[in-house]
Amino acid sequence: MAAALSATVYIADSSFIRLKHCMNTPPNLARLRDFVQALAALLEHQPAEPDIIAQGSALLARLVAHDDWLPDAYSQPNPQHYQQYLLHADALERFSVVSFVWGPGQFTPIHNHTVWGLIGVLRGAELEQPFARTADGRWLAQGAPHRLLAGQVHAVSPTVGDVHRVSNAMERDASISIHVYGANIGAVQRSVFLEDGTRKPFVSGYSNTSLPNLWDRSAELNAQLKAATPTTPTTRP
Ligand SMILES: [Fe+2]
User: Fold this and answer.
1) Which of 63, 136, 158, 161 has the fewest CB atoms below 10 angstroms from its CB?
2) Cα separations in angstroms, 90 against 38, 87, 185
3) Domain range for residue 153?
4) 190 part of a folded domain
5) Residue 130 CA to ligand 1 centre (angstroms)
6) Residue 166 CA, ligand 1 centroid: distance in Å
7) How high is the mean pLDDT of the chain?
8) Distance (Å, rounded) from C-alpha 89 to C-alpha 97?
9) Residue 193 lies in a domain
């Protein structure tokens, strides 16, 4: 019997202004820092998975509503295969945040996650095709693929539907999505599947060896200091 799969798509609040990435301005990493802090605070209360998905999706929708914060180093496609850049891993490995960068025509194999996951499209568009297992162990596409546009968020998990294939919906351009998982996804044993039911275990790696520095807040704090420091008028005798 096929597992019941459901799709949840959250759309970023239209009140947010979608800012375009600008090569000439430094990335606004405060958005990513605010996101990881808010998600850590949410998980601190050990909420049930439906609450994590609902509230975490709202946080991710806020993050991907703006396209002005992802550093260029973590947005580069590879002509051979999609890239998975680690942006942040929680110290207790309760969650991880990655940027998936897809070149034209690139796609994942059919795979699972084993933990909750949130997909927020930052740039371009993606196709997310859920799969369900048949009684004889094969995997069949279930329904039409979901087309996820920039600003939209989709959830996966063993309870809401965990097996899918994701591809870049853009024929000529790269697409970027921000994925959040309920573990350090680089340390989770998962599976890829062939449609005939063949299973191959794997642990996904990361494409980067260094992380964006979210924690240098000196510019913001120095600006506050400067604003709070009274200027002494220069007087001449
Ligand atoms: Fe996935």
Assistant:
1) 136
2) 12, 10, 11
3) 9-228
4) yes
5) 10
6) 7
7) 90
8) 6
9) yes
- Distance, in Å, from the CA atom of 119 to the CA atom of 97, rounded to the nearest integer, reads 10
Residue-wise pLDDT for 175-195, tens only, equals: 999 999 999 999 999 999 999
Cβ-proximal residues to 192 (8 Å cutoff; 6+ apart), any chain: 109, 110, 111, 199, 200, 202
Task: Quote the CA–CA distance of 165 and 127 in Å, as a whole number.
Answer: 8
Q: What does pTM read for this prediction?
A: 0.86
DSSP run (H or E) holding 40 = helix 30-44
28-34 average pLDDT score: 97
Residue 61 lies in a domain: yes
SS in 3 state form for 60-124?
A: HHHHHCCCCCCCHHHCCCCCCCCEEEEEEECCCCCCEEEEEEECCCCECCEECCCCCEEEEEEEC
Domain CATH code at residue 44? 2.60.120.10
Dihedral angle at the C-alpha atoms of 189, 195, 197, 199, nearest 10 degrees? -20
Q: How many domains does the chain have?
A: 1
Strands 9-11 vs 199-202: parallel, antiparallel or unpaired? unpaired
CA 101 to ligand 1 centroid distance, Å: 13
Over the stretch 209-226, which tens digit does the pLDDT of each residue have? 999 999 999 988 998 999
Distance 208 CA to ligand 1 centre (A): 19
Does 235 map to a domain? no
Structure tokens at 125: 């568009």
